[in-house]
Amino acid sequence: MRNMIKFILGLVMILAIVLANSIPVKAGQLAKVTLKNTSAAAANDVHLTAAAGKSFKSGTAPGFNPASQAPAGGSHNLDWTSAQNVTPIPPGGSIVLPVEFMDPWGGINKDSCYLTLNGVPLTTKVTYLPVSTFISNSLPSNGPYKSLAGDITSYSNGFLLRNITHDNFSSQQAPPPPGGTYVQSFSSSIHMEVSTNGGSSWQPMSANANVTVRVHNNGAGGSTGFFDTEMLQLDISGGTLPGGVMIRESPTLQSLGQTSITQVTGGYMIDSFFDIFTELTTDGGQSWTPSGSSTNMYLDTVATTSPIPTLSQWGLIIFALLLLATGAWLISKRQKIRMA
C-alpha cells in the first residue's frame, strides 16, 4: 500500500510539472514581448530568437509584419528606424512587440531577445506578456494595469516604487472610430510598495489618482483595431502616502502607450501598455524630482471564463490517469501473487 501511495504521488508531481511548463502558449496564440532598454543609449534594432524547434512571427504595431517570421529555432532582426519608421527606444523606454506563435507550445528564447544600437547589443530587460480577454471593448479595460515584475521606479531623493497596480477606473467609454480621437478623464486607485530609504525597507501604500488619457484610432490592422495613447495627466495623492508626498505625470516628457483590440468569440482580446514618466514631491508640490526612467505599465491578464484545458492538455491528463491506473493494477496484482 505504501508503494502505491508513493507511485501515485510521483505521477501527480510529474503531471503538475508537465502542465506547468506546457500551458502558457499554443499554436496560433497571440502574446506580447516587452523589451525595456536599460542602457544609456537609444536602441534602433530588435533581435528575437525562437525557442528550439519553435517558430513565431512578430512585428511592431500597428500590425504584424509577415516578413519578420522566424523559422523554427531561427531568429531575425527588425531595424525599425529604416524599415518601420519608428522612433528609436530611448534609455529607460520600452517597446512591446506582438507575437503570434506558429507551433503548439511555442515560445521565445528570452536569453536571445535584446535591443541593439548599430548592431551592438544593449542591456535589455525582457518580459513575456499574454493578451487579456474581456467581455467589453470599452476603455480603459476593466483589468488592472501593473508594472513589470522586478522593475523599480527611482527618484534621486531616495524614494523608490515597485509592484505598482493601477485599477478601479471610475468610467469607461467605447473606443473611437477609425481615424477618430478623444480625450477621457477618470479617477482611479494606485497600490504599490514604497521605499523612502533607497530600498532598505518597503511599505505597501495606496493612493487616489486623477487621470486624463488621449486615445487615437490609427485605422490600421484590419480585424484588429490599433490605438495610439498618451497619458496627459496622472496625479497621485492622499491615501496612505506620507504627508506632502505626491506623484504626477511629467509635464515635459510624453507618456505614450498603445492598445490593440481584436474581437473574438465571447469578447475581445485586448493588450495595452503605457510608458509613464513621473515626478515626485515630498513638500506638497513646491519642488518636484523626476524619475530616473519611465515606468512600463501593462494591462494584466483577465479571462472572461475559467480556462478550459486544450486537446493537448487533456491528452496529458488522460495519459497520466492511464499510467496511474496501470500502476495501481500492477501493484494490486503483485500483492495478490505474494498472498497466494
Description:
- The protein has 2 helices and 21 strands.
- The protein is mostly beta strands.
- The strands form 3 sheets. The protein has an 8-stranded antiparallel β-barrel. A 4-stranded antiparallel β-sheet has the order 3-5-1-8, with no helix packed on it.
- Helix 1 packs antiparallel against helix 2.
- The chain starts with a helix and ends with a helix.
Q: What is the H/E order?
A: HEEEEEEEEEEEEEEEEEEEEEH
If you compute it from the alpha carbons, what radius of gyration comes out, rounded to the nearest whole angstrom?
Answer: 24 Å
Main sheet: strand order: 10-12-13-14-15-17-18-21
Oligomer: single chain
Helix content: 10-25%
- The count of domains is 3
**What integer is the average pLDDT?**
80
First-to-last CA distance: 17 Å
| Percent range for β-strand residues | 35-45%
Low-confidence segments: 17-24, 303-313
